[in-house]
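Entry 14. Structure prediction run on the chain below.
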Amino acid sequence: MTEQTYYWLFFLLCLLTGMCAGSFMNVVIYRLPLMIFGTGDGDERFSLAWPPSHCPVCHHRIRFYDNIPVMSWLVLRGKCRRCRTRISAVYPLTEAITGLWFAVVYLCLAGPVNTLLTI
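Output returned:
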């Protein structure tokens, strides 16, 4: 493979990593206030890892293939697979912006294509 191929593959890797980081940021943004101030339903086991991601309306557990950053929201047209409740566009927007941020940082730090593999 050429240097340019590696350059753009690493760009895509940074973009995908950033989108995954954005997805985790969504979890923290949603759950941390509930952990600090309480859920109001008496559930003491609430944490960043438990319960698994689920629809806040029908409580249907979100499958792994419905949890792919940005893509799943687009495929499901912004709705829960089970109850068809609308899912806010803030979630994929956060994922996309974080992914782009990671990719731009890479482009700024990597320099020209021909210097990428000389370090």
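Helices lie at 3-37, 71-75, 90-110.
Filed with the rest of this week's runs.
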